[in-house]
Hints:
The chain is mostly beta strands.
Amino acid sequence: MGEPGVAQYWDAAEVTSLREGQGRTVEVNGRRLALFRIEGAFHAIDDACPHRGGSLGAGWVEGRQVFCPLHGWAFDPASGACSTRPDRPVRTYATKVEDGRVWIALGSD
């Protein structure tokens, strides 16, 4: 395993598995994350909405925002900010594209 406190990248999905403006849930190293392709960039956030735990990967994308499928809370997947409730952001994870795959960085926490 990696050093304590140092992020390690994990293989999450094929680049071609997500079209522009689409998201889905992926499991990476035992964690459920929501992965999105917005304006050509990949963004990863916690899959569970902080409101009622709805799967953000099952939500919908409008512009640069992701909406929870249960009650429509809106999130910026780049920053994790919630425009519906600014006090309830979601955690974001760094991504990179390498060899046609999307990789997501997870810390050792």
